[in-house]
Write a structure and sequence with these properties.
Among the domains are: about 100 residues, Double Stranded RNA Binding Domain (2-Layer Sandwich), CATH 3.30.160; about 50 residues, no CATH class. Helix content is about 40%, strand content about 20%. The protein has 16 helices and 18 strands. The strands form four sheets. It has a nine-stranded mixed beta sheet with strand order 14-15-13-12-11-10-9-6-16, with helices on both faces. Strands 2-1-3-4-5 form a five-stranded mixed beta sheet, covered by helices on one side. A two-stranded parallel ribbon has the order 7-8. The radius of gyration is 24 Å and the shape is globular. The structure holds iron/sulfur cluster. The site of iron/sulfur cluster has 11 residues, from loops.
Length: about 500
């Protein structure tokens, strides 16, 4: 499909709108030039196209969209005052949404909000002095968000607010610490992360030097943060599946962190024990004894056939055993992740997963919606991808919301990704008092993140909201070979905060 831009280059936002309606299409982009003649004598317009034009006139800005699809053509037009030029991209996106909606008969529950963080929009509106009702009205009018999603975003924002206030009280003194362990026992078919399957010898051999290097980076970075007078208030050891490592390796990493950083501000310490097939009593004890306060054990689904289909080498029974083991060892805050929209999962099967988890009563349940990424095995072919995208995920997500809220959970953080089935969202549901500080801090971008290990992405936030990122090598082999450069890059943290003083 051809997207033609005249007088503007608002490709990013408008392409995201087109993908809501035509997720499988490949788009070609054309910029500038004269206005194509679209009509009976048309020679330039292809069968499927969208022309997006911006004209700055003497008294106003004229925006219009002409879209052709399925043998039909739709037009949408608006005028903006010259003072509102900053809103042109948003308004053009809206016109495109309206035209495509009429052409396809489809709408999206999130309207033209295609970005990652809808809750940020709510916070922006309430910071302008709007009440909840006014914010909902604005989200519906400007962004065409459905009533249900407006309420969800506002409920989530309300649960977050006291935690954001608490984070604000430590601004300039605290940061979130992320430690990456990018190894897994095997690779899930939907995974697009760089995690390495530790089933082969070459990856197994990489792990001991990786742990050595990670410990060096921990000590080096802790010295920098100590000089800056900053300390972590949350720690997250994620991956991958950190429990792919041995109990001794996990204990060594955690002891090194505890012995290097000032841990006096730490309010939450999470370890992802994502795959039940990696969990042993020794590992859980090592994690708990070394300061972990929050554990994640993830079934994704309680349907064994689906688990096999997505390449997870564990059963639902193994998940229940691991969960009970974690309780016996002494974990009092456990998160469990599930995914709505997995291939071949029916609404009944998903409901059984939600009911099974609700009965188990973990402190939080995170409901993801499947997202199909290029780097994943799943959806690699067009036909398979198209089948996956037809999943009844919206029905599943609605069931999860109703059931979990009725059981005393409430939504506390939310984010969206590209290419999610049904353009839905990922939502963390939690029992009051167990909201993850780390998840809120990183999703709402209110606290610096110091990220260590392969694929770590450090994000520094200045007093005026200025942000910079410092990237580590993505793959463990590169990280092992290039640690010195990673350490050199970490010195930028000191430069950044020195400039703030
Ligand atoms: S457990 Fe997570 S990181 Fe590991 S392969 Fe599966 S989806 Fe990827």
């Amino acid at each position: 499909m051809k997207l033609i831009y005249i007088g503007n280059e608002y490709k990013y936002d408008t392409e995201a709108i087109m993908k809501l309606f035509l997720p499988d299409r490949h788009f070609e982009f054309e910029y500038g030039g004269g206005l194509p003649e679209i009509g009976t004598n048309c020679v330039r317009a292809p069968d499927e196209y969208a022309i997006m034009r911006k004209r700055v006139l003497r008294e106003h800005i004229l925006l219009y969209v002409i879209a052709g699809y399925g043998g039909k053509r739709e037009k949408a037009v608006c005028r903006l005052p010259l003072s509102e030029e900053d809103y042109c991209s948003e308004r053009l996106s809206r016109l495109l949404y309206e035209a495509m909606s009429r052409l396809t008969g489809q709408t999206s529950e999130w309207g033209i909000l295609t970005g990652v963080r809808p809750v940020k929009q709510v916070r922006r509106l309430t910071a302008l002095g709007m009440s909840r009702d006014e914010a909902i009205k604005e989200l519906k009018a400007q962004y065409l968000v459905s009533d249900k999603k407006c309420r969800l975003a506002c409920d989530t924002a309300a649960v977050q607010q006291p935690i954001l206030d608490d984070l604000e009280s430590r601004r300039g003194k605290a940061f979130a610490l992320y430690i990456s362990v990018p190894f897994c026992p095997s690779r899930c078919s939907y995974c697009s992360f760089i995690s390495q399957a530790a089933s082969g010898n070459s990856v197994k051999k990489m792990i001991p030097p990786y742990v050595d290097n990670l410990c060096r980076e921990i000590v080096f970075t802790a010295e920098i943060m100590g000089r800056l007078g900053m300390a972590p208030d949350s720690v997250y050891i994620g991956g991958g599946t950190p429990t792919t490592l041995s109990a001794e390796q996990l204990a060594r990493i955690m002891k090194t962190a505890a012995g290097s950083f000032d841990m006096s501000l730490v309010k939450e310490y999470t370890v992802e024990a994502g795959r039940p097939d990696t969990i042993t009593p020794e590992k859980l004890k090592a994690i708990l004894e070394n300061g972990c306060t929050r554990l994640s054990v993830n079934p994704q689904t309680l349907n064994d056939d689906i688990l096999r289909g997505i390449g997870r080498a564990h059963t639902a029974a193994q998940f229940f055993e691991s969960f009970e083991l974690a309780r016996r060892v002494g974990f009092t805050s456990i998160n469990t992740d599930v995914i709505a929209g997995l291939p071949d999962e029916s609404p009944e099967s998903f409901r059984a997963t939600i009911d099974g988890l609700t009965a188990l009563s973990p402190e939080s349940i995170t409901v993801h919606t499947l997202s199909i990424k290029r780097a994943a095995r799943l959806g690699a072919g067009d036909e398979q991808r198209s089948n996956v995208m037809k999943s009844p995920a919206a029905e599943m997500v609605d069931y999860a919301a109703e059931t979990l809220c009725a059981a005393g959970y409430r939504p506390y953080y939310m984010y969206r990704q590209k290419n999610m089935v049904d353009n839905l969202e990922n939502i963390g549901y939690v029992k009051p008092g167990h909201e993850s500080l780390y998840n809120i801090a990183i999703m709402e971008e209110v606290e610096p993140i110091i990220a260590l290990g392969a694929a770590g992405s450090t994000k520094l936030i200045g007093r005026d909201g200025r942000m910079i990122r410092i990237f580590n090598y993505k793959y463990p082999a590169d990280y092992n070979a290039g640690l010195e450069l990673m350490l050199e890059r970490k010195k930028e943290i000191e430069d950044f905060y020195a400039a703030e003083k």
